[in-house]
Model the fold of this input.
Amino acid sequence: MITLSTKKGIVRNTTENEPFVIRASTNKNLPLILRKKEVFLVHEDQNNIPIGFKAYAFFDCAPNVPSEHENIYVLPSDLDHLGDGDVLRIDPNTGSVRVLYRRLSKHNSFLTTERCNSFCLMCSQPPRKINDDYLIDEILAAIPLIDRGTGEIGLSGGEPTLLGDRFFELVKSFKNFLPETSLHILTNGRLFEEVKNAEKISEINHHDLMLGIPLYSDISNIHDFVVQADGAYDETIRGILNLKAYDVRVEIRVVIHNQTYERLPQLANFIARNLTFVDHVAFMGLEMMGFTKTNLNVLWVDPIKYQDKLEAAVTGLDRAGIRVSIYNHQLCLLKPSLYPFSVKSISDWKNEYISECDGCLRKEECGGFFTSAAMKYSDHITPFTS
Done:
């Protein structure tokens, strides 16, 4: 697990009064005019520290720096993975630091809001009715600092479309500043039942945009129960239809648990017959976070139990010519026929393996576990020995 935030930073000699978003640098030869926009990282050598940077971050040490240096932040050692080009949010009033973007990671995403119009049983980010518009301001400040070579950025919530016009402003900003970067947005799709919203996002004409939309059953009342919102199924289906009518790419995401696994083959058949134009379908393992902990008694099912149904669903979609993947699953629990569809999808900062995985010859191919899996995982984890 990789630490991405701390409230334990020590602030020294600060001239700042408000939180700020800034890019990290290890380049002592950076031109002076650019140093004013960056925080210099001091990992080991404390000699010849360059002047002129907006801030300085030291790691788990008590720096003795010349008096001309201002805005010193002493950070715990679990953040010493920070490197050149990373983007941080620093609060000089509290010493708290959040890592917004890591240049060398393939798993960068931004939380856009904690507000949501659904209340999913297994939500890993339980919604809150708060004004968190500051998150959009932070993302907009971070976007110009992100490396243009970044492959993909994710946006999640809450429900991003609740931001209204600011949601579309955000997508436009990613398009303008990062013209070669894919954008993957997690949304429940419900507000796209309004044609104008599908039209707006289509008009942005982002070069590589995908909307990941959950669909949990071919039966409306099962989907509505899972998301705890009456009428959500119909809104979601209309949203998907509107988006595809405007040629916006859509991925259907199915979290597998005790309320959804029984009808996986029927859901796949429904998609193949009625939504054959979607661009991807992802079957996803359960993350033991947020509401999942509270509702574990109605959600947990050992993945071994649903392998036949998952196989029928995956192979059915594959035969229909729909791209399909399996996320967040351990390879040893899958049927061999499903190995080609398995993807290592868990973000690197919350991905780990357990002791039962020691000595497994296919560990590098396996999706591994969420760090939260210590709460509950299959009794059938078996390392590959040949």
